[in-house]
Automatic annotation (TrEMBL):
<keyword id="KW-0576">Peroxisome</keyword>
<dbReference type="GO" id="GO:0005777">
    <property type="term" value="C:peroxisome"/>
</dbReference>
<dbReference type="InterPro" id="IPR038371">
    <property type="entry name" value="Cu_polyphenol_OxRdtase_sf"/>
</dbReference>
<dbReference type="GO" id="GO:0016787">
    <property type="term" value="F:hydrolase activity"/>
</dbReference>
<dbReference type="GO" id="GO:0005507">
    <property type="term" value="F:copper ion binding"/>
</dbReference>
<dbReference type="GO" id="GO:0005783">
    <property type="term" value="C:endoplasmic reticulum"/>
</dbReference>
<keyword id="KW-0395">Inflammatory response</keyword>
<dbReference type="GO" id="GO:0031347">
    <property type="term" value="P:regulation of defense response"/>
</dbReference>
<dbReference type="Pfam" id="PF02578">
    <property type="entry name" value="Cu-oxidase_4"/>
</dbReference>
<keyword id="KW-0808">Transferase</keyword>
<comment type="subunit">
    <text>Interacts with FASN. Interacts with SDHA. Interacts with ATF6, EIF2AK3 and ERN1.</text>
</comment>
<keyword id="KW-0378">Hydrolase</keyword>
<keyword id="KW-0399">Innate immunity</keyword>
<keyword id="KW-0963">Cytoplasm</keyword>
<dbReference type="InterPro" id="IPR003730">
    <property type="entry name" value="Cu_polyphenol_OxRdtase"/>
</dbReference>
<dbReference type="GO" id="GO:0005634">
    <property type="term" value="C:nucleus"/>
</dbReference>
<keyword id="KW-0256">Endoplasmic reticulum</keyword>
Length: 418
């Protein structure tokens, strides 16, 4: 397996001595992390090396990561000192994921630093300083197109909400570009890049500086009512608290938003095909009714971008379960891999549970601007697991209760919404 060698000249490595030892290596990809300190040193002139000499360590390492991704490399050997490792580990946590493996090779600092070098004058950066540097650098990066947010005209203005698309972020890997909003240990988009994408989304959508609170997906039907003990995993959240932005991810699975303008209660659910069969949508509604006194007739629902029946198939034995919800959910049941309409299945289940048909905004509602396009059919606008495979990006549906000045309550017996 090809290995990249990162030589840390910023934190004490001597370029002459380290360069001599690397001449014995079997042609690795060598990168010099030097900032402006050692770019003119001669120890590496005989090798084909790439010099990382940007003004900040964050920019140097971001350039390094981009090159690794272009070369499809993930194994890195780092030559540094003990204090260098302490600093670089902080950058690694922010700018890389578990896809990349780092092996730190340490020697006593005196054996890596010659009299002429004297080591680096840079002190070890605390975690907060590294985070600030990384965040400041990423905020300067240009976006790929502008941020686009889809909004449902069914959700009243007393709530802030939206469904993100894939444009307007800084993620550069093709299947994650550019507004990927979830950092997975199995993919190459690191937490700092995802947090910057979320910041840019928040500025456009209006919830910044509040953070997104994403469900902890388990492809089931567990609902967390905020204020109670948080479960280990859950696919839905419900609250009446202001100041918190609920969010549900999707990349073919449905992000579904729920709002009651009378009781000022909101919910967000992630519904894939498994969660649909387990009833996560109605479980969310039930939590709003039992936990906060919502009436079924007051709850409105918006179903976000998700895979359409045109592009989603299951094994026949799995599709049978959707036929039992409604025959129209499986238009070709005799096929070896029937197409399945998971959006229709959720509408049917919600209506059976008592949600009014006109209070569900999905792809069947033609008199409102669409918020439920097929993610697989529109690669320019949405991420899709079905289309892109395992290295897919994530968009989200998000919702919060706007904070307003207290007003006199309505007369007894009235149930006015916002």
């Amino acid at each position: 397996m090809a290995v990249a060698v990162l030589v840390d000249l910023i934190h004490g490595c001597c370029p002459e001595r380290t360069g001599t030892s690397l001449l014995e290596e079997p042609d690795p990809h060598v990168f010099l992390l030097c900032g402006k300190l050692h770019r003119n040193k001669s120890g590496f002139l005989s090798r084909n090396v790439q010099v990382l000499d940007s003004d900040s360590t964050a920019e140097c390492l971001f350039r390094f990561k981009r090159t690794l991704d272009r070369l499809d490399l993930s194994s890195v050997r780092v030559l540094t000192t003990a204090r260098g490792r302490e600093v670089l580990l902080r950058y690694q946590e922010l700018l890389f994921t578990a896809v990349y493996t780092f092996e730190y090779q340490l020697r006593p600092e005196h054996s890596l630093t010659c009299t002429g070098c004297g080591g680096s004058a840079h002190p070890v950066s605390p975690a907060a300083r590294v985070r600030e540097e990384v965040s400041g650098f990423l905020q300067q990066l240009p976006a790929v197109e502008g941020v686009t947010v889809l909004r449902s005209t069914l959700i009243p203005d007393c709530f802030g909400h939206g469904f993100s698309t894939r444009t307007g972020g800084i993620s550069y890997i093709q299947t994650l570009s550019s507004m990927n909003l979830f950092s997975s240990s199995r993919r190459r988009d690191p937490v700092a890049v995802v947090m910057e994408n979320r910041r840019r989304l928040g500025l456009t959508a209006g919830f910044h500086p509040r953070p997104l609170r994403l469900v902890k997906v388990n492809h089931a039907s567990d609902v967390w009512v905020l204020g109670k003990a948080e479960p280990e995993s859950y696919d839905s959240m419900v609250t009446n608290q202001t100041g918190v932005v609920l969010a549900a991810p999707g990349a073919d699975c449905m992000p579904i938003l729920f709002a009651d303008p009378v009781q000022k209660v909101i919910g967000a659910a992630h519904a894939g095909w498994k969660g649909t069969l387990m009833g996560v949508a109605m479980a969310t509604v039930d939590a709003m009714v039992t936990g906060f006194g919502c009436r079924l007739s007051d709850i409105v629902v918006a179903v976000g971008p998700s895979v359409g029946v045109c592009c989603f198939t299951l094994e026949r034995q799995q599709a049978v379960d959707f036929s039992s919800i409604h025959p129209d959910c499986v238009p070709d049941p005799e096929s070896d891999k029937p197409h399945v309409d998971i959006r229709l299945a959720n509408r049917v289940l919600l209506q059976k549970g008592g949600v009014l048909p006109e209070n569900i905004h999905d792809n069947t509602m033609s008199d409102r601007p669409s918020v439920t396009p097929c993610t697989s059919c529109h690669p320019e606008n949405f991420f899709s697991h079905v289309r892109d495979g395992l290295n897919f990006g994530t968009q989200v549906g998000f919702l919060w209760i706007k904070e307003t000045e207290p007003e006199p309550g309505p007369p007894a017996g009235r149930r006015d919404g916002c």
